[in-house]
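Private note to self, pasted from the team thread so I don't lose it. Backbone tokens:
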């Protein structure tokens, strides 16, 4: 069973780590039986009416849970982890959903709405339905971003992986075949749609962060010269200007 765990509003301007890193570190404390597939960063609407720490982003862990149950234990562990690790003064929230016959359609619609307009805690609770959604401090506004992160990730078409396999171990150059063997599809944005060959090299810019497209990690590249491709993404300098203390 695939399980989605969304975290948001876990930090403040003084925090040592942001929501993304907090989400990634949960892997080390997951109960037995769960296997982390990836962690996806989701970008929500940035506007003056919404308080946020730096970018108004949320994070969603995508976990494959064995057939022997363990969902309740996973939820309990995630809640305990958030309560212990969220920064004092933040507004943390968590959403946990899982694949069902009915799907995640309400959360998907809610997540998409959060990318273009301000949504409320009531909206989040209605979208979550019978899935787990809870706030753990401050205004509890974190439930908004947490629910949105789950919905957007559950759609399979939104977000950027901040954890998938060994993203931080890639050097300047790696073959397209190596990336594909590790589950990352390499896709050209060239107008002629040439397909990168497995033995051709990818200039990574030391920042391999695939997009979530069609339910899988996709690294978009552009052609350079002589069978060399360049990752179109690159690390940006983190903004230090803030308009609030939450990431909702």
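Design output:
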């Amino acid at each position: 069973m695939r399980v989605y765990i969304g975290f948001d509003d876990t930090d403040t301007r003084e925090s040592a780590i942001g929501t993304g890193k907090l989400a990634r570190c949960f892997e080390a404390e997951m109960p037995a039986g769960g296997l982390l597939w990836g962690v996806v960063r989701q970008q929500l609407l940035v506007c003056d009416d919404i308080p946020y720490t730096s970018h108004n982003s949320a994070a969603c862990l995508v976990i494959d849970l064995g057939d022997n149950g363990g969902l309740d234990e996973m939820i309990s562990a995630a809640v305990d982890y958030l309560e212990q690790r969220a920064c004092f003064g933040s507004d943390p929230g968590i959403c946990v959903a899982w694949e069902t016959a009915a799907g995640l359609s309400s959360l998907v619609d809610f997540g998409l709405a959060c990318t273009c307009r301000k949504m409320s805690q009531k909206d989040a609770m209605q979208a979550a339905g019978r899935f787990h959604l809870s706030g753990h401090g401050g205004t509890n506004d974190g439930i908004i971003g947490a629910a949105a992160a789950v919905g957007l990730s559950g759609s399979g078409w939104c977000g950027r992986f901040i954890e998938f396999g060994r993203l931080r171990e890639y050097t300047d150059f790696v073959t397209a075949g190596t990336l594909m063997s590790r589950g990352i599809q390499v896709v050209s944005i060239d107008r002629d749609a040439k397909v990168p060959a497995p033995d051709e090299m990818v200039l990574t810019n030391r920042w391999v962060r695939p997009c979530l497209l069609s339910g899988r990690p996709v690294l978009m590249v552009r052609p350079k010269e002589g069978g060399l491709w360049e990752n179109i993404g690159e690390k940006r300098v983190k903004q230090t200007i803030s308009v609030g203390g939450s990431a909702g």
